[in-house]
Amino acid sequence: MPEVDDRQDPKEFHEGVPASAWPFSLKGSGGLDWGMQNRLARIFQPDSGRTVMLAVDHGYFQGPTTGLERIDLSIAPIVDGADALMCTRGALRSSFPSGIRVPVVLRASGGPSVLKELSNERVALDIEDALRLNASAVAVQVFVGGEYETESIANMTRLVDAGVRYGVPVMAVTAVGREMVRDARYLRLACRICAELGAHFVKTYYAADGFETVTASCPVPVVMAGGRKLPELEALSMAAAAIERGAAGVDMGRNIFQSEDPRRMLRAVRAVVHDNAAPGDAWAGAS
Ligand code: R5P
User: Fold this and answer.
1) Which of 124, 120, 173 is nearest to 147 (CA)?
2) Cα angle value 75/96/262 (rounded, 5°)
3) Region of 180 on the Ramachandran plot (φ > 0 left; ψ -120 to 50 alpha; else beta)
4) With 90 as the cut, is the pLDDT of residue 6 above it?
5) Using a 6 Å cutoff on CB, does residue 225 contact ligand 1?
6) DSSP-based three-state secondary structure for 53
7) Whole-structure pTM value
8) Cβ-contact 170, 153 below 8 angstroms
9) How far away, in angstroms, is 28 Cα from ligand 1 center?
10) Is the CB of 173 under 6 A from ligand 1?
């Protein structure tokens, strides 16, 4: 039993002061429930409203990718330098200590390997396991225009329904099939479909021409996917351009973990994303 509050000092009820209100400024997220907003606030830094996610989920369809042969040795030691970690539940349980402080975005779709039709995915994670693993969001691939377009969108909407039940945001990842062009027109279509059907944020590729129309027409935050490995300054320039054109951050994999110095590259990407640093300054300052 707590002791009775018998202090005689006058209480202060601040009767004339309106109750505090904290608007949630992340794009398109003001109407979400507290738990959902709190998870998003772990991923998107309050100061900049942006995020640097480190994607290491490649093994879910292509096995031991270069740089990820031993996630425990290459990624676990640097992961605290990211704002969020994107990975599979298998990698999380086997290759990261449970004491990491970085919020986790769990890969929640999968099925086909690189040997098969990639768009033929299923939901590959129960929301209960995402909660058990203390995930801050789940990620699902959406193949707009792909052979299994409808199925992949149904995977997403199913996860959105589950996520809404428990306050777990869903990140839709717009996969672009080999036969498709990664131009702004396609990316606008894919991102908007994901957002309209409930994704809380969207990961998509950068398009040099018209990327600002992709971010402007998507009512929720867009994070830029990294793509194939580029020279460090080119990758940083792409990230800077995406931020300048409205991206709320990046979710980069190979351009970080295949870098000549992954820890330094992660620091440089952070400087570009959070401090609007010029790519050259960011790389030089991150050494
Ligand atoms: C998309 O297919 C997956 O999420 C990837 O494994 C990952 O996001 C790719 O990252 P990056 O293209 O930057 O290596």
Assistant:
1) 120
2) 10
3) beta
4) no
5) yes
6) strand
7) 0.95
8) no
9) 24
10) yes
